[in-house]
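Job type: complex structure
Entries:
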Amino acid sequence: MELFIIFISAAVVNNFVLAYFLGICPFIGVSNKISSAVSMGMATTFVMVITSIVSWLLYNFILVPYDLTFLQIPSFILVIASLVQFVEMVIKKVSQPLYRALGIFLPLITTNCAIMGLALFISMREYNFLEGIVFGVGAGAGFTLALTIMAGIREELELADVPKGFRGAPITLIVAGLLALAFMGFAGMI
Amino acid sequence: MKKQVTLSQEFLKNLWDNNPIFKQVLGMCPTLAVTVSAINGIAMALATTFVLVFSSLLISLIRKLIPDQVRIAAFIVIIATFVTIVDLVMKAKFPELSKSLGAFIPLIVVNCIILGRAEAFASKNTPLRSVFDALGSGMGFLIVLFVLGGIREIFGSGTLLGFQMLPNAFEPWIVMILPAGAFLTLGLMMGFSNTYLERKKRLEREAVLQKFKKPVEVQEIKEEGA
């Protein structure tokens, strides 16, 4: 039950994009088409789950025992960067179709603050191993959800008559604001 | 003399024409997240500027030593070092501010503005220019964060920098300090700034056209005659 609450909390109630403002760059950049939004969401979820495992192990078995927690930021970012590279190579070797689907989005994930935020939250909130993984899955699902909804709206928005100055990023932010309002409705769930 | 001018241009171009948030749409996450109040915005922008200036300086100093293939990794390590310094200093000296900014101080490390300036400018220019460019970007970031934080604080809690701005009868708009308010306010700010720039550009273009209208017509007639 505890795990289920963590999942729901990360996925909808405290949605990473719409409540914590993490991963706004891909949220604005890659939300033009539903198909690319889904690919990006899946790639991010995948990296998030692996990051939550690796960063938990790193934090609890290396940084804490040797009293090196002040190295948290550089070590996490290095782990994430090399992890993304590694995942890219593995996917390329194992599954060509998946590599073609995710390919260009993988390098972008390194500078996605949602991944770094996830690793920091897990160490900050002292989740145990299983909770960390569930949190990662939930955050990824929430990210995918927000990105897909946004892409769906933007596909319709292409046809709308938006004032010239508001095209592109500004109208996307305003739509995101309305989405965030809608997501506030989930606040009573837990 | 010429160099003096270009140095100040390096600084000024990032303030408005090439503003990191309005024009380049970089560093959105901290912009939206920490601007619940003006003071938070200022603190965040100053912390980012510190990291930006020192990492730009260091990167441009050693830009010839870094092999091209590993430059991104090297930049990230340098940036992470300065972010750690900021994080620890903030925790020690300003514990309250550090708490209210939360995870967003460590997250400066993935702020695209810093890596963007490192990649686009500091890795190709001299240290002095890089510092000016970084300062300009930082100040451009500061202006946007302060204005956004100020607007949200005035409407969301009726104060600015802690001083009461609106009468007690004013019912604070709670939505302004919630996430939705951040998205809406920044979206409107960006939209209006774009509309203004669009209009300015159109007027300039019309003025230029007006100026050259006659010679153009003359040329056309000549070509017809030939």
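Summary: The longest strand of chain B covers residues 159-160. Strands of chain B lie at 159-160, 163-164.
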